[in-house]
Every structure is written in structure tokens, then in C-alpha cells.
Write a structure and sequence with these properties.
Layout (H helix, E strand, L loop, with lengths): L1 H4 L5 H11 L1 E3 L7 E3 L4 E4 L2 E4 L19 E6 L2 H4 L9 H11 L4 E5 L7 H10 L8 E6 L14 H5 L1 H17 L7 H7 L10 H17 L3 E6 L12 H13 L4 E3 L13 E3 L2 E4 L1 H17 L11
Parallel strand pairs: 5-6, 5-7, 7-8, 8-9
Antiparallel strand pairs: 1-2, 3-4, 10-11
Helix pairs in contact: 4-11, 5-9
């Protein structure tokens, strides 16, 4: 059975491998989990290499490169580049686009799969800030209002690929049919922003972004909030209320904000997915996102070399 279903492109099995081969539980419960330093794997059809600082990136030290712009990208599996070769992620495409203007830049990929905003902020406040970026990009996604998970999963989830595969198939079917307590995905995601829902973590998002803004402002680091779209449906977009809430949060904290939905909403959603059953952004989507971020930064004259932190 394992050989019959595991072709290296099954989302649930590949995420299980990612957890087993690349992740570990963090000593800090606020962070939850993190990448294993120097881990390597082949996941969802692409090679993944983690550096000594636990990022999917080349080796980059805390020390600043003279006369170079440094940008750090926080986020989850979309920023990490799930199913996308490293040089085709929107993080590295942005770096290449900046280099093409003659500006030296380091764009650091601090994305970790299954992070929420609170975990991203905790990781940055713990260690990420030591890289002293000029610009910190908080790449927000609709499920970032989930609560930080506890690591008490059933033993089968840690050891059995068959269990993961069939449990996922059952869960997808149940959500499509609205069976039992499993609600459709759109309703589940909307509940994350409803203060009356026990699953909502929106208050934690607000508190975490406020902490991040205060911390970075005191250190002269600009924070840009981008909002990455959920790619299963783009017109009409099903999360307009939640989209407005994220922008309003950025505005309250006086943080620049970039909505990335307009970068892709002229395309059919399926053209932007890693596979027909995995709506993570693919190479085309990442190309669009990188161009939109580049244009935003260039229009505000932010693509310039700096001696920040030296």
C-alpha cells in the first residue's frame, strides 16, 4: 500500500515526512516547533536544505554585510516555499530582483511550515532579531489565527504513513459532506476570527503583532505586513471580512501593508497551486508575489543599501 499511494506528491504524506525529517519540538513552548539545523529532505518534488540557523536558506551569519540591504521574511509554509524550488520561492525571487537593480541585498527566508503569527513573532523575538534586518516582512495567511498547537499527537501520527494517509482522506470527505463536528474549511477559517468561537486565535494575533511592532520600532527595523491570499477561490474572495481585519490591524499599529490578492486574482485558482489537490502557491504564484513586493518596496524608495546595525 505504501508504494501504491506514496509517489512523493501526496500532500499529507509529504507534510508527515517534513515533520519527521526536518522539524523538531522547540524548547520554547511559545515557538512550538522549529527546523532541525542542517536538515535535508526531498519533499513535494523539491529538495529542501536547512542552514545552521534553522532557515531554508544558504548560510547567513548574524553579522551584517557592509553596504547591503537586509530583509527577513517571517511566515509559514507559503513563505518557506512548500513544493517550490528554493531559488523560485518568492523570497529568493525578490532577492534576485533587488540584485538586478544593482543593490546588494540579503533576503532571509525564516518561514516555517505550520507556524502561526504568534509562533513567528516568538521565534523572531527569541533569535531572529539577531540578524538585524532593515526590513522585516510579516507574511500573513488566513490560518495564522489558529492557536499554537500542543505536541501530544497520537503515536500513530508519529510513526504510521498509512494512518496519516487514510485519516486525511476521511477528514477531507467529512468536511466536504459536513459530517459530524467537521465543518467545511471556509467556515473553519472564518471561525478563527470570531471572538465567540473557542477556536479563535485572532486576539493572540493582535497581541503578537503589537509586540513585534513595538520591538522593531525601538530598534529601527521597518515592519511590512503582507496578506497572502487563500488560493482555492479568488473571485469572489470568501474572506473579505478577515482581509479587512488584517489591514485594520496594520493601520492601527502604523505598519505599511500590502495585500497580495490583486497580484494573482486575474488567474484561475488552479493555475496557482502546487498540485491539483494542494493549493499552496506554486512557482507562478510566487513569481507574482515577489514582483508585487518588489514594486511596493521600490515605489517607497526602500531598496537602498544601508549600514544598519554596523
Amino acid at each position: 500500500m505504501r508504494l501504491a499511494v506514496d509517489d512523493g506528491m501526496q500532500f499529507d504524506l509529504e507534510m508527515w515526512k517534513y515533520a519527521r525529517e526536518v522539524k523538531r519540538v522547540s524548547a520554547d513552548p511559545r515557538i512550538g516547533h522549529e527546523h532541525r539545523p542542517s536538515a535535508t529532505a526531498h519533499l513535494m518534488g523539491v529538495d529542501v536544505a536547512i542552514n545552521s540557523h534553522k532557515f531554508r536558506d544558504r548560510e547567513i551569519g548574524f553579522e551584517r554585510t557592509p553596504d547591503s540591504l537586509r530583509i527577513m521574511m517571517l511566515g509559514d509554509s507559503l513563505t518557506f516555499g512548500w513544493g517550490v524550488p528554493n531559488d523560485k520561492t518568492f523570497v529568493k525571487r525578490l532577492e534576485a530582483m533587488i540584485h538586478a537593480t544593482g543593490v546588494q541585498a540579503e533576503v532571509i527566508n525564516a518561514g516555517v511550515g505550520n507556524y502561526n503569527t504568534s509562533m513567528e513573532v516568538a521565534a523572531y523575538l527569541s533569535e531572529g532579531h539577531r540578524f538585524r534586518p532593515d526590513i522585516l516582512v510579516l507574511n500573513y495567511f488566513i490560518n495564522d489565527a489558529e492557536r499554537t498547537p500542543r505536541y501530544d499527537s497520537h503515536r500513530l501520527e508519529r510513526t504510521s504513513a498509512a494512518y496519516i494517509y487514510f485519516a486525511s482522506r476521511i477528514d477531507v470527505a467529512a468536511r466536504m459532506l459536513g459530517l459530524g463536528s467537521r465543518r467545511p474549511w471556509y467556515d473553519y477559517l472564518r471561525d478563527l476570527y470570531d471572538p465567540s468561537s473557542p477556536t479563535s486565535g485572532w486576539a493572540e494575533v493582535e497581541a503578537a503583532v503589537a509586540r513585534l511592532a513595538e520591538f522593531c520600532r525601538a530598534r529601527g527595523t521597518m515592519v511590512l505586513v503582507t496578506n497572502l491570499p487563500e488560493l482555492r477561490q479568488l473571485k469572489p474572495y470568501p474572506f473579505e471580512r478577515e482581509r479587512t481585519m488584517v489591514q485594520a490591524l496594520a493601520n492601527r499599529l502604523d505598519l505599511p501593508y500590502l495585500d497580495l490578492l490583486p497580484a494573482v486574482d486575474d488567474l484561475e485558482p488552479g493555475r496557482l497551486w502546487v498540485t491539483p489537490t494542494d493549493p499552496h502557491p506554486n512557482i507562478l504564484a510566487d513569481e507574482r508575489f515577489a514582483a508585487a513586493i518588489f514594486d511596493f518596496l521600490r515605489a517607497r524608495n526602500l531598496l537602498r543599501t544601508t549600514n544598519h546595525g554596523n
